[in-house]
């Protein structure tokens, strides 16, 4: 893949300020199975003007970005999407949390079931 300009989307942050999200050709162009052809990994999306403009950012886009979706309290005003460039090949650092079903509770549950 070579020679294609980045696609630049203008989005709004949580405070309503516009920012640019540039998507490179490595993200939006895909190769055919034999590798002879490349084509864009997007298509036209017909959406009523009342709901648009719209785009669907699927797997081809998401594999290069880390995304977090939050509905907040369920209202439209509280809905948020966080987008950041992914560190391809990175290993996530996740803290181990104690299970809500700890081993201390398990015997009590087992006794309760056995008593039935």
TrEMBL record:
Residue ranges annotated for the Peptidase A1 domain, each copy included: 1-84
SUPFAM superfamilies: Acid proteases
Region called Disordered, residue ranges: 92-116
Domain of life, source organism: Eukaryota
Pfam families xrefs: Asp (PF00026)
Listed InterPro entries: PEPTIDASE_A1 (IPR033121), Peptidase_aspartic_dom_sf (IPR021109)
Stated name of the protein: Peptidase A1 domain-containing protein
